[in-house]
Amino acid sequence: MAQGPLDIPRVRQGLASRRLGRKIHYFPLIDSTNSCARRLAEDGAADGDVVIAESQSHGRGRLGRAWISPPSLNLYLSAVLRPALPASAAPQLTLMAAVALADTVALFCDTEPSIKWPNDVLLEGKKIAGVLAESSCAAERIEFVILGIGVNLNYPAELMPEAIRDRATSLMIVRGQPVEREAFLRRLIQDLDRCYGELEEKGFGAIAQRWDARFNLKGKKIRVAMEDETLVGTAVGIDPEGALVVLDSGGASRRVFAGDVTPAE
Ligand code: BT5
Questions:
Q1: Helices and strands per DSSP (H, E), number in the chain
Q2: FRET pair for 41, CA 20 to 30 Å: which of 1, 35, 143, 194?
Q3: Which segments in the chain show pLDDT lower than 50?
Q4: 106-114 contacts: CB < 8 A, separation 24 or more?
Q5: What is the pLDDT of residues 226-243, one digit of tens each?
Q6: What is the rounded distance in angstroms from the CA atom of residue 236 to the CA atom of residue 257?
Q7: Is the CB of 94 within 6 Å of ligand 1?
């Protein structure tokens, strides 16, 4: 479905956010909104500045994976965050973004989204969005975090490369009709702004509870592929720092900070 470019002044109209999106940098095509936001942050961009691109030539996932970013159908955005939080709280920002994203997605369809630890938002078990948080820390403090979000809005299955077609979805596929991208973007900025404020002011507790309620593999047997080992066990939930808690086959509780989770049976 051919669509026009995003109408950014329209997104700004009625945008009720405190910090996020006060400044929006818009590009028809960019390498990666995360790379661009990092360059801006290094040049002093303020907390809440947002970068949006219609398309990315080098959209990134975690661990050097690619984020497929066709033009004018979806959203690719990155926010510069300068939270008043210690470096140890950086993983919480990824989980906060997943909660905010799931809230926004839920408003635009009748199906409840779930979250796959740590950063995937799923609809009907398929990936609709991903979060990539990259932080820069100095002396135990967060200098800035670049929070990148890719979300499939009007992406038809027939345009998805085969490598993701079985595992990915979009709002249009689930709703059966396209979404107005400006309305989704405005709402997403507001939800991120709200959850970000909540995290800073009240701590991780409330966000963690909402994350847990959407956790797709809670209580299930999972396999976690980490850099140097694979762990099989039962997913318990997340701990106060945002680590995934897994009960291993010997009954010991393990904390996982980075890895890929899949169902084990
Ligand atoms: C993520 O990584 O899910 C984080 C994706 C973050 C993308 C945003 S877009 C704006 C900002 N700028 C960037 O450069 N990045 C951020 P990960 O968990 O590693 O998942 C990557 C995997 O998801 C790939 O290996 C594919 O299997 C799958 N994938 C790639 N593109 C997809 C798409 N458009 N929709 C659904 N799945 C996709």
A1: 7, 12
A2: 194
A3: 1-2
A4: 107/187, 108/171, 108/175, 108/179, 108/184, 108/187, 109/171, 109/174, 109/175, 110/175, 111/174, 112/214, 113/214, 114/214, 114/215, 114/216
A5: 989 999 999 999 998 889
A6: 14
A7: no
Interval between CA 129 and ligand 1 midpoint (Å): 7
Q: Read off the DSSP letter of residue 232.
A: E
pLDDT at 247: 96
**pLDDT tens per residue, range 19-63:** 999 999 999 999 999 999 999 999 999 999 999 999 999 999 998
- Name the 3-class secondary structure at 149: strand
Query: Ligand 1 center to residue 150 CA distance, Å?
Result: 7
Distances (CA, A) of 245 to 13, 120, 169, 190, 192: 42, 17, 28, 30, 25
Pocket test for ligand 1, best of 57, 67, 124, 159 (most atoms within 8 A of CB): 67
* The pLDDT value given to residue 265: 76
Token pair in block for residue 109: 């369809």
